[in-house]
Amino acid sequence: MNGMKKWQKVKDHLGILPSIILISILFWSGILKSFQQIFNYDMLKKIINNDELLSSLIYTTKLSLYSIILVAIISIIGIYILYLLSTEIEIKKLNIIKIFLLSPMYIPYLLGGYMISTLISQSGIISTLCYKLGWISSMKEFPILVNESHGYSIILTYGWKASPFIILMVYSTIIKINNEWLDVAKVYGVNRYHFFKEVVFPIIFPIYLCSLFVVFAHIFASFEVPYLLGITYPRTLSVLAYEKYSRNSIANREEVMIINSIIILLTASVALIIYKLNKSIGEKVELELEK
Question: Are 217 and 68 in contact (CB under 8 A)?
Fold first, then answer.
């Protein structure tokens, strides 16, 4: 009977096997073709000596690092607020606050970028408010924060959009922490801040760190926000690859493959780091929660 059940399960999946094989061949052949260009010495030398690619790589890395720092700051504040409220208010009110903090996750990145642009551009909501309050004499006095070389609007968009993901990932661990620990700590005169710092944060830190790595890989490879809020030079690697490909020149295709290979290698490296972190310290978190 067990053999018949196993065969039935295998049989149910045989129908989609040809599609899986075809998609896998097309997917991996494209990736392998891209990586082949890295071993093309002449093309690789041309790319390395290309100031445009080097500028894009540096610009993408800077944007990703600044964005992840902002995400780390915003998310840890949100986590701390949820932790404090979870011990003070009833569940219904806490769920409303949690939905509010996580609401940016439900907005697409393209729409989120447009909303940030509407908010902080020279003709946006904040500049109009400053002008009406008399803080600036004209709209042009408001600083340029959108479509400029430093990527302020891009960083702000990622900080606002990606932070809820970190909060969501970490909060699921916080609710497993035994509240009796806090009651015991209060007996010894420990306040909530020090309890969070000394007990809660060390437990959630591995998940917090892994989530930051996931967000960093996403920001590094993302396209829509830098394309909407960025400038023509320097550009992020994903935007550079898209614009080179859209020129419909065969000469650019090999460069595009190398750029995509760089993005794949970095995101794959981050994925490996996440896997190692989860494997090495994930069990420690579970042991701490079971105590």
Answer: no
Angle of CA points 229, 161, 156, to nearest 5°:
45
Q: Please, are residues 159 and 70 in contact by the beta-carbon 8 Å criterion?
A: yes
| Residue 256: Cβ-neighbour burial (10 angstroms; 0-12, 13-18, 19+) | buried
Please choose, from the candidates 139, 144, 147, the residue with its C-alpha nearest in 3D space to the C-alpha of residue 114: 147
- Contact predicate 136/130, CB 8 Å: yes
In the 8-state DSSP scheme, what is residue 249?
-
Residue that the structure tokens 């790589």 belong to: 57
Interaxial angle between packed helices 152-174 and 51-86, expressed in degrees from 0 to 180 and rounded to the nearest 10: 40
Q: Which tokens is 290 given?
A: 């079971």
For the chain, what percent of residues have pLDDT higher than 70?
Answer: 75
Least Cα distance to 167 among 219, 128, 207 occurs for 207
Give me the half-sphere count of Cα atoms (radius 13 Å) on the Cβ side of residue 23: 5
Write out pLDDT tens, residues 208-257: 888 888 899 889 888 889 988 888 788 888 888 888 877 766 666 777 77
Using an 8 Å Cβ cutoff, are 288 and 280 in contact?
A: no
- 180 Rama class: left (phi>0) / alpha (psi -120 to 50) / beta: alpha
The answer to whether 256 and 245 have CB atoms below 8 angstroms apart is yes
Fold exhibited by the domain 42-110+148-290: MetI-like fold (1.10.3720)
- Pair 168, 105: CB distance under 8 Å: yes
Calculate helix-pair angle for 237-246, 201-221, nearest 10 degrees: 20
Domain residue limits, the chain = 42-110+148-290
Please state, as a whole number, how many other Cβ atoms lie within 10 Å of the Cβ of residue 250: 6
Other Cβ atoms less than 10 A from the Cβ of 153: the count is 24
* Radius of gyration for the chain, computed over Cα atoms and rounded to the nearest angstrom: 24
